């Protein structure tokens, strides 16, 4: 796709060339995101950050990405204080707000709403999540993380083996990541979930049609055994139709140091979309793995910033001029760079 | 008036010379607002944006205007998280907050509160709306829109014909716009409203005393027939004292394509303060006019940005130095400029 | 202490040399805070401002301080929209958010939470208040205000006489200020409070051990008589165990023009942490003193900005390079500078 001036609404817009273009631009953002360099390439530009649903992490990540390119951020953070609550159409909101900014990020609880909004917007719109539907920057940062983690092991996405664990029926992130992986070749998916929360058939069918191998299991220990990457998500007990099923599976889809050591292949990368629920009744990814070198969850969050910088640079057409205004960071950053690497 | 260092609290502060000064400065802001140029004239300046009442649109418009001049924005967005809820006086709040910023925009539900606040402030305060009382930047952007729309038709405000429609009794915007029009000559006002929601007599008397012509009617079709501009506002059914009156008038003050074609003079400009209520039971301005070339409502919203840029530039005394730091916009803006003009 | 890269969690971290270092840097910030000069020393840096508890004033003060150094601010303003409400640990939040910004300010209702957060953060964290526990920048701005006010009178902190008034049992600000004053010599403290709300013994013991003189009284008029500074705080009636005690003391710990003239030594400096409650049933510091030259409460708030600028400059290691990017302010600031001085 031609990114310049485009909306980023769905992973369905992307082919392999455009995904790899995003990743290459993201790579070029690393010196800025890790505070070795600053750039003013978007000095004077304004991001309209419209979060009609709570999301601290995604909102902060987009805002910091835009600031790191030199731009300013203006925010709307809830539905109640917006004109939409007074009966304004998304068309009107889009026509007005797109006159205030150079690019818009929007999160909204209703599936399809961001696309509808984008149609009336006069500036590029990036989908920051529309209900259960799409959250393309999350899928991109997940895939980018897999690429980088495997690169460190001199491996690659084509031909890799990935396990997806948890509520695969309702999980937006595993759906979108699966769709992006359709663009790659010869992947082995192990789908680990309770029978009631299996990955939808239409996604499985697409994966098989694209030549990938799919294994389904409700036995975590079996499923974990032979992967390059394990992608964990949370299961909420209220998702089960019968309490007896919830009881049956309780605690069966958690990962901790002991299970990792016993059942995972050496160097298996551990991922999670975050936030992870660390309360005792959830705890799908135990904190005893916090210092494990293959725990990639915080690198995943860091990668969100460079992916979002790349998306902004691409839709605003500045991906090749970022370095023209670059300068060394002049404040003390040793704590940050030391701990990050 | 001398703008430099002044508060902008009420349209009553303005004479015709000062209104036209604002409009001239607003004209000079157009290249910056429409993203042909950037400026850093307020680089280092801080706007304190204090919205003690919900208003996404006005807050965003002021904030983006300030960012577009190169300044930073710090915001307070509700009453509950403010010290006012702990019994702090407006005097104290003003004395403290005015030490944090270079100019303040304030919205507050209590009429008169912004003026009281301004008296204790050490920096210029712009009224962003104080309850039913004043909202001067809205009145200015409305009048500026009329001026620009009529200019396109080689016409002018002096001598024009305007219809105001809807709840003229309670509508802050039509009151303020009427007051500003007192500064102009020989205007014909057609006030279209239910009998219960007529424009207050003191405003009508002022208009007549200033030499304008005033016609009142509760028949929309008759009132629409001979105007340069129609300014629509919403009627809320709960404004009527008797339900029988609400029933009598229901649906009588709406504008759509068919009514426009049958009853309005050719090229009549359509305005609305926004947000318009697009729910079926309101729908005072139908979406079937969305692509009509004389629908000025989104240009109205865009004009809000240049008017607010002009107000900031004037009270901070930089209206003549904006261009000194101007530079071409370096990111891709074709989507925006194409659709806007 | 070595500030570069450090967290600022508690006044207990500070010795006299480090306190005076902060004050010297704060002095150097005055031209920037009072809008004579701008600086871009933190151009490109991002402050993560995380307020998990309402605090308009402190949040604005930190944000404006960071903007005044040329940096950008990204904010989280409540608990409900944060991932913590979904069971995320402070460790995870810290690891993620510290990847988005160069320095973090955090307020949180739970004592100890900011320190716990800081341990996992990859960038310096400044405590913006953790419940009843610590609020170090408030204590520093209080002490800095005393220093500056006494300097004007050719006096100094060592050897001064200070009265603390009100709820000394629960008041975080008077506890922290007392701790900081342990670093100075030969101070006379007059602790004025109802018997039920006396300063805790461990603090009194520390003061005496450090060689200071401590007087306790529940009689305001007696206590006021011989001080350089009076530091007032609010008493809430619900703090008393018995209503009869509340009745006994009602209105006994207020200061107004008449009491000041009758009971205070000439030129006694009046301080208050703000916000003061101006409702009739509180009114601990009457507005009839608003124009009194020794009322330091608004200078106190202004000093908050330079103290916070100093803390940012020190932890980011730019305290000596602020002037390298300084430039004269180019917008009109006469209203501000005239009224401030």
What does this structure look like?
Three copies of one chain form a homotrimer. The first copy, chain A, has 341 residues and is an alpha/beta fold. Chain A has two domains: 11-134 and 303-333, Aspartate/ornithine carbamoyltransferase (Rossmann fold); 137-298, 3-Layer(aba) Sandwich (Rossmann fold), CATH 3.40.50. In chain A, 37% of the residues lie in helices and 14% in strands. Chain A is built from twelve helices and eleven strands. Chain A has helices at 16-33, 56-68, 90-97, 113-120, 136-152, 172-181, 201-209, 220-223, 243-249, 257-263, 297-315, 334-340; strands spanning 37-38, 46-51, 72-76, 103-108, 125-130, 161-165, 188-192, 213-217, 229-232, 269-271, 327-328. Chain A has a five-stranded parallel β-sheet. In chain A, strands 3-2-4-5 form a four-stranded parallel β-sheet, with helices on both faces. In chain A, helix 1 (16-33) crosses helix 11 (297-315), helix 3 packs across helix 4 and helix 5 crosses helix 6 (172-181). The longest helix of chain A has 19 residues, at 297-315. The interface between A and B is large, with 40 and 43 residues.
């Amino acid at each position: 796709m031609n990114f310049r001036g485009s909306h980023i609404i769905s992973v369905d817009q992307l082919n392999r060339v455009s995904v790899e273009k995003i990743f290459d631009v993201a790579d070029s953002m690393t010196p800025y995101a890790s505070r070795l360099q600053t750039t003013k390439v978007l000095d004077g530009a304004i991001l309209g950050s419209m979060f009609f649903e709570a999301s601290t992490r995604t909102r902060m990540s987009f805002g910091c990405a835009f600031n790191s390119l030199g731009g300013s951020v203006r925010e709307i953070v809830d539905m109640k204080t917006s004109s939409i609550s007074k009966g304004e159409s998304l068309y009107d909101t889009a026509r007005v707000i797109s006159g205030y900014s150079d690019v818009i990020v929007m999160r909204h609880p209703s599936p399809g709403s961001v696309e509808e909004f984008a149609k009336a917007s006069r500036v590029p719109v990036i989908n920051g999540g529309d209900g259960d539907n799409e959250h393309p920057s999350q899928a991109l940062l997940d895939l980018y993380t897999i690429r980088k983690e495997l690169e460190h092991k001199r491996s690659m996405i084509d031909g890799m083996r990935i396990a997806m664990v948890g509520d695969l029926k309702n999980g937006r992130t595993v759906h979108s990541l699966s769709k992006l992986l359709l663009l790659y070749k010869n992947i082995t998916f192990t789908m680990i979930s309770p029978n009631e929360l299996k990955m939808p058939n239409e996604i499985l069918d697409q994966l098989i049609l694209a030549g990938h191998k799919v294994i389904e299991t409700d036995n975590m220990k079996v499923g974990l055994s032979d992967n390059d990457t394990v992608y964990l998500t949370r299961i909420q007990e209220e998702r089960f139709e019968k309490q007896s099923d919830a009881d049956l599976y309780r605690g069966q889809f958690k990962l901790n140091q002991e299970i990792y050591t016993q059942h995972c292949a050496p160097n298996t990368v551990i991922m999670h979309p975050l936030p992870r629920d660390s309360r005792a009744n959830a705890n799908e990814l135990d904190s005893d793995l916090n210092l494990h070198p293959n725990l990639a969850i915080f690198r995943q969050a860091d990668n969100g910033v460079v992916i979002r910088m790349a998306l902004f640079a691409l839709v605003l057409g500045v991906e090749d001029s970022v370095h023209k205004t670059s300068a060394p960071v002049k404040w003390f950053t040793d704590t940050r760079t030391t701990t990050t690497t």
